[in-house]
Design goal:
The protein is mainly alpha-helical. It is 57% helix and 5% strand. It contains four helices and two strands; from the N terminus they run E-E-H-H-H-H. A two-stranded antiparallel ribbon has the order 1-2. A hairpin with a 2-residue loop joins strand 1 and strand 2. Helix 1 packs across helix 2 and helix 1 crosses helix 3 (40-54). The chain starts with 7 loop residues before the first strand and ends in a 10-residue tail after the last helix.
C-alpha cells in the first residue's frame, strides 16, 4: 500500500523536506523511495520539481539549503 504524503507545513510539503534531506545525504532515489514507501519515479518527480522551484543546480545546492534550515548536520560541527 502506498503511503500518503505528509500534510503541508510552512508552504511546502513534508515530503519536499524529506526528499531534500535524502538527496543532501547522498542517498539514491531508490534508497529515498524505499525509506518513504513511494516509487523511485515519484522521488525523481519531486527532485525535478524541487530543483525548479528552489532553483537548485545541483545536490550541493540542496545540501546547503538543508544545512541552513537545520534539517541535516555537518558531521564536523562540534556544536
Amino acid at each position: 500500500m502506498r503511503k500518503q504524503a505528509p500534510k503541508k507545513q510552512d508552504g511546502k510539503s513534508k515530503r519536499t523536506e524529506q526528499v531534500i534531506v535524502g538527496i543532501s545525504l547522498g542517498k539514491t532515489t531508490k534508497e529515498i523511495a524505499f525509506e518513504l514507501g513511494i516509487a523511485s519515479k515519484t522521488v525523481e518527480y519531486h527532485w525535478q520539481k524541487i530543483k525548479s522551484l528552489y532553483r537548485f543546480w545541483s545536490v550541493i545546492d540542496a545540501a546547503h539549503y538543508a544545512l541552513s534550515r537545520g534539517w541535516v548536520r555537518n558531521k564536523y560541527d562540534t556544536k
